[in-house]
Design goal:
The complex is a heterodimer of chains A (about 110) and B (about 110). With about 110 residues, chain A is mostly beta strands. Chain A has strands at about 5, 10-15, 20-25, 30-40, 45-50, 55-60, 60-65, 70-75, 85-95, 100, 105-110. Helix content of chain A is about 0%, strand content about 60%. The termini of chain B are far apart. Classes of the chains: A mainly beta (about 110), B mainly beta (about 110).
């Protein structure tokens, strides 16, 4: 069974810092990996999707990397802003089946 | 562009009551999903659909039923509500399997 773990569970940083969020998974037979953002009381917004054959994806100040063999992904946020405050979720897509396996998320607070 | 719309946003039920959570999407997506998110936990897949008339169970289907009579709509029915079904329910859709999933804002359900 695929287990997805996100570390740390919570993170508080001052505005302007670069930061890294970590995601690990136990079964390397994945199809892709997605990073989502969830604001309080809202649904999930897809940030980046990395196919299993890719090493990284970038969107603006966000960069996600994938090391399938070691079962790890990182989400790098450059020059953090208070508007980046949210919960970030990692989800792994399996080779077979339709379910995404989600981590519990990292709650990020960026202080002015 | 509405995306994925869920109604109601909040609901309180008594034990043993039943209700239907509504989900509609305007992106002509074939794939639709229902997840539940319990506090401090990752999202779990309840049911999914790969097109009108085709549905299948996810990881936690007990106590729920779904139907998919149109491409746009994917309602989730709770029969004989139980306190263990207190959760936030999210509906999502994607154009194809393994493409980014688009989420609604969720239905917060309490069963007392």
């Amino acid at each position: 069974k695929q287990e997805v773990t996100q570390i740390p569970a919570a993170l508080s940083v001052p505005e302007g810092e670069n930061l890294v969020l970590n995601c690990s998974f136990t079964d390397s037979a994945i199809y892709n990996l997605q990073w989502f953002r969830q604001d309080p009381g809202k649904g999930l917004t897809s940030l980046l999707l990395i196919q299993s054959s890719q090493r990284e994806q970038t969107s603006g100040r966000l960069n996600a990397s994938l090391d399938k063999s070691s079962g790890r992904s990182t989400l790098y946020i450059a020059a953090s802003q208070p508007g980046d405050s949210a919960t970030y979720l990692c989800a792994v897509g399996r080779n077979s089946g339709y379910a995404l396996n989600f981590g519990k998320g990292t709650s990020l607070l960026v202080t002015p | 562009n509405a995306g994925v719309t869920q109604t109601p946003k909040f609901r309180i039920l008594k034990i043993g009551q039943s209700m239907t959570l509504q989900c509609t999407q305007d992106m002509n997506h074939n794939y639709m999903y229902w997840y539940r998110q319990d506090p401090g936990m990752g999202l779990k897949l309840i049911y999914y659909s790969v097109g009108a008339g085709i549905t299948d169970k996810g990881e936690v289907p007990n106590g729920y039923n779904v139907s998919r009579s149109t491409t746009e709509d994917f309602p989730l029915r709770l029969e004989l509500a139980a306190p263990s079904q207190t959760s936030v329910y999210f509906c999502a859709s994607s154009g194809q399997i393994h493409q980014p999933q688009h989420f609604g804002d969720g239905t917060r359900l309490s069963i007392l």
